[in-house]
Structure formats: structure tokens, C-alpha cells
Amino acid sequence: MTAATTRPLLGAAMSVVCNSLTKVYGEGAQQVTALRGVDLEVAHGELVMLVGPSGCGKTTLISIIAGLLDHDAGECTVLGENIDHMDQTAKARFRRHLLGFVFQAYNLVPQLTTAENVMIPLLLNGMSESKGLAKAREALERVGLADRCGHFPSQLSGGQQQRVAIARALVHEPELIVCDEPTSALDHATGQHVLEILRGIAGNDGRTLIVVTHDQRILGFADRIAHMDDGRITHFGEPRISMEATS
After folding, report:
1. pLDDT confidence of 245, banded at 50, 70, 90?
2. What is the pTM of this model?
3. More exposed terminus of the chain, fewer Cβ within 10 Å: N or C?
4. 71: number of Cβ within 10 Å
5. What is the pLDDT of residue 38?
6. What is the percent of the chain with per-residue pLDDT over 90, rounded to a whole number?
């Protein structure tokens, strides 16, 4: 694990800048305010974890950053691009080339092999199947699954499926990877291994990671921890302090 910081990496460019983000669901008596003026900066090459109680706005925030959800007020700049100025087609293109997403439920296609699942982003970007399979195998080797290229998701453990999802998220070499509860269904040892992979991607490749988690066991892998409550980021903490506070 790397040393923790309480602010963006000194001198680093910002991969994500959110200013006063607001998001409201529903209308009238059914109206729910999910985000209440969120400010967040994430430096290039940084691993930031978002923690807080269920319903505090964590998934809403990363969905806006990933261009999957529109916000109602404020600004969000991702990798130098103001996503407010993009239509849905431009956002989809932006995600295909520059973003990777690791879902809590893995979202693997059961009828496809692990290699075929991993190469999906490459095919969407126009790469040939033969080149896509070669790069998919390289990505699977990186996460320790070189011997599972021909297996189907049903033949893999939960931890192996999550590593396939990580390989799929990084195979097109995105600048930003967003993870939603990547260890929630994993045992301690498997969860630690998954975070070691993600930590290596941030530390060795210089890619930016934002991880939503309730898993106190993995907080020490972060550079910073953003604590959220009631639609706001209340404070930032060092991993060691955050782990002691929640233990």
C-alpha cells in the first residue's frame, strides 16, 4: 500500500473536478435530493474511495462522473472535458474510449467466455476480433486469469468473476476507472487481492480510480477517503484514521 494523503497529489493534474453538483429525483412529495452541492477533485493517478451510509449519494455521484446520469446543477469536468456540454452520443463515445466501470454485480454476459466478455469494449471501439482476443488475454493474464480465457462466468468463483470485470474495465486502457462496491460479495483474502490489482493500476499505470465502498477492510489501499452523508462530502480522511474510526 502507498502512503495516504489528505488532499490531491501535489502538482498533479485533476482527472475529475466537480463543483456544487446537485441531483434531485422525483417531484413534489416524492422529491428526493440525492446530491446537495458536492465539490470533489481527484488527481491524475489517485485512488479515492467514497464511503458513507446507504442512500447518501455515492452511486449517484459516480454515475454523474461516468456520464451515466445527468445532474441538475453545478459543473462536472472529467479528463478535461465538461460533460455538461455533451449529448448522450458524445457521452457514450467518451465512456467507450476513456472510462472503465467495475459494477458490483459483475455484469458479465453468461453466454460469452471470459476472453469474449473482456474484449467487448475493444469491439465497441472498432477493433477486430482477433486483435481484441489477444488484448483480452493480456488483460486476463494481468489479473491472474490467463488459464481461464475459455471458461464461462458460471465456471468461475465470485472473486474470479470480479477480476474478469476488472480486466474488462482496463482492457481499452482508460484514463479513469470507476468501481461500485467491488469487494462487497468477496471474502477477505479475495477482496484484498482485488484491491491490490486496482492499487497497482493506479500506482504503476498512473490511472485514476474512484471506488465506492462499505468495506472497511480495504480502506488502507486509498490515497484519500471522501466521507459522504446526506448528499454531501462532509470531510476527507487518511486511510489509517478512517479505519480506526470505523473499527
Report:
1. low
2. 0.87
3. C
4. 23
5. 97
6. 64
DSSP state of 219: G
DSSP E strand stretches across 44-166: 47-51, 73-78, 81-82, 99-102
Residue 242 has what pLDDT? Answer: 52
Sign of CA dihedral 239, 240, 241, 247: positive
Nearest alpha carbon to residue 84 among 34, 20, 178: 20
pLDDT digit string, tens, across residues 99-147: 999 888 889 999 999 999 999 999 999 999 999 999 999 999 988 899 9
Q: Are 62 and 209 in contact (CB under 8 A)?
A: no
Distance between CA atoms of residues 212 and 133, nearest Å? 30
CB 96 within 8 A of CB 121: yes
End-to-end Cα spacing for the chain: 19
What is the CATH class of 14-105+175-246?
alpha beta
Question: Per-domain residue ranges for the chain?
Answer: 14-105+175-246
| Long-range CB contacts for residues 110-115, cutoff 8 Å, separation at least 24 | 110/152, 110/153, 110/154, 111/152, 112/152, 113/149, 113/150, 113/151, 113/152, 114/140, 114/145, 114/148, 114/149, 114/150, 114/151, 114/152, 114/153, 114/156, 114/164, 114/167, 115/140, 115/149, 115/150
